[in-house]
Amino acid sequence: MKKRHKYGQNLRQNTNAVTLTAIAISAGIMLRIAFFMFYSKSGDIYCDEAMTVLNARAIANNGTDIMGNAYPIYFATWLYGGQSGFATYIMAAFIKIFGFGLEITRLPILIFSVLGLCAFAGCAKLIMQNERQVFFATALAALSPHFIYQSAWTLDCAFFPQLFIIGLYFLLKAYKNRSKLCYAAAMIFFALCLYSYIAAFLIVPVFLVIFFISGMAQKRIKFGETVLSVIVITLAALPIIAFGFVQTGLIGEFSIFGFTASKMQDYNRASSFNFEGGTKGFLMNIAYNIIYEAIHFFMPDTVIYRNAFGATLADAASKNGALQILYNITTPNDSISAFDFGHALSGILLLAGFITIIIKRKKLNKDFRHTVFALTATLAIFAVFVKLRSYTLYRFSAFYWLFYLVGAVAAAGLYDSIKANKKIKNTAAALLLACSVALSFYIYNDVFTANSNFFGNSFIAALETAEKADGSTVIFNDTADEKGSNEREAVYIYYAKYDDKTELTPLEDLLKTRGTISDFNAENAKAEQIGAKLGYETYRDGEALNADSYIFTDETLNEATAKEIPGYEYCDFGYYNVLIKK
């Protein structure tokens, strides 16, 4: 009788947990859709998104990228860096089917964000110990500040974590059910990861090698299944692998089924790795990563702490060299990195979860241990080779799924250990999850700022206003040594004037003469015409202004000075501002 009562009680608890998991998934989907709609009306456009849109529109309309390359396997955007083919081609397909609109180009990332959340819930269901752990893992992922924010607009590499978790779901299904079809599906999605972000070339192979070797060692994966997986992923990834061979000089440029692989002469991502500075620099970068990870991953929301205590922290740091280094490490800029994998409680749960897994590892599900080990080992290897900086936290977003799995172990354990009425515990858990959503929107409204040259709305509004004014010339003020700013502005010009028939200096030429790879600086800056009405000049304090309109940044001409310039009307558009001749 007691056994029957206990069985019934466990069944009810599992049913309740399954229901809560379904609610968490639904809430996560609704939050993503709601933020997508909100951002479509009130958001900005990031420089990398503007570049991806340019290439997608060009591919949809002409079959070439914005620089004239026919159906490239990988896009040589910014010249020294590139952008993923997956994001560009899926965006181009949506433009071809539905027509152009910024919301149309953003629909694919919203769809994949929803699919990624569902796939993660499936992964948790397959490997976690009980339904309560599944619920907490799903809830943490559903309310993820990073993934909610990143579902509203297209950072090209944002598809990677979604493709990765879908691939992992099929891999775990194959692993548990001995399904060759699932192994093949998993490898196709892992191959697509390689087309979605260049960092996947390190993360995906390392993870799969660790997962398969440890799986074969446990006699859970057969050799034939491994061979099948290697064949499928190799065939699916062959074009992008061959593209890599072109870059290293192992093979020449080629075209296959209309897609082309060309040598990227200016490509250079050495600064993204830890190898700069010889052995000493390598070790220093690794130490930096370890310190940053320990602080940032276990204490997220450093951007909120800086916003609240920034002046005090900066003052203390200025008086101590070690504190200054620590302050720099733990202070992300107000960009896309402001949206973390979770908030302060998530960091505590992550730390507690890792400790719990170490202490109680023998009691945990074997498949869970296997998956967490493979992901954690991959993260450790990735952190050794790739720089972790405050402005590139999205490079680690594929590992956020790991954090939710680990944090859920601690959350479920904490829930079970609290001896209180279930209604009280459930209410407290619901309030904490609601606080997570509230904190995310607080960051968006009060901490995060799009008021920089990384975002284009300010520049585009200034350009449109300047062009509408009567006159024949619009002059952009050179930003001197800010070559990164120059190349972003060039992309915004092309983005804003894509539908115009105006002849502009080719974007590739602008990037080569004024961008990061150029020798452009304040000393050799000179007046330059880039379109019939558009040109560049360097303004110096006190110089007479003659053109019909000028576009400045807050940093090159402040509002007080601008309003004192005779004969011009001042218009404020945030980061960029306009002077229009009266």
Largest sheet features: 6 strands, mixed
The fraction of residues assigned to DSSP E strands is 5-15%
Distance between the termini: 91 Å
Q: Give the beta-strand count.
A: 8
The number of distinct helices, counting runs of at least 4 residues, comes to 21
Q: What is the string of helix and strand elements? A: HHHHHHHHHHEEHHHHHHHHEHHEEEHEE
Overall SS class = mainly alpha
In the sheet with the most strands, the strands line up as: 4-5-3-6-8-7
Low-confidence stretches: none
Mean model confidence by pLDDT:
87
What number of domains? 2
Assign a percent range to the helix content. 55-70%
Indicate the overall shape.
globular
CA radius of gyration = 26 Å
How would you sum up this structure, described in words?
The protein has 2 domains: 2-271 and 362-377 and 389-397, no CATH class; 457-581. It is built from 21 helices and 8 strands. The chain has helices spanning 2-42, 47-62, 85-98, 102-127, 131-142, 145-149, 159-177, 180-196, 200-217, 223-248, 278-298, 302-318, 321-329, 344-359, 366-385, 400-417, 422-447, 457-468, 483-496, 507-514, 559-563; strands spanning 254-256, 259-261, 474-477, 528-529, 534-537, 549-553, 568-573, 576-581. The strands form 2 sheets. The chain has a 6-stranded mixed beta sheet. A two-stranded antiparallel ribbon has the order 1-2. The chain is globular. It starts with a helix and ends with a strand. The model has no long low-confidence stretch (mean pLDDT 87).
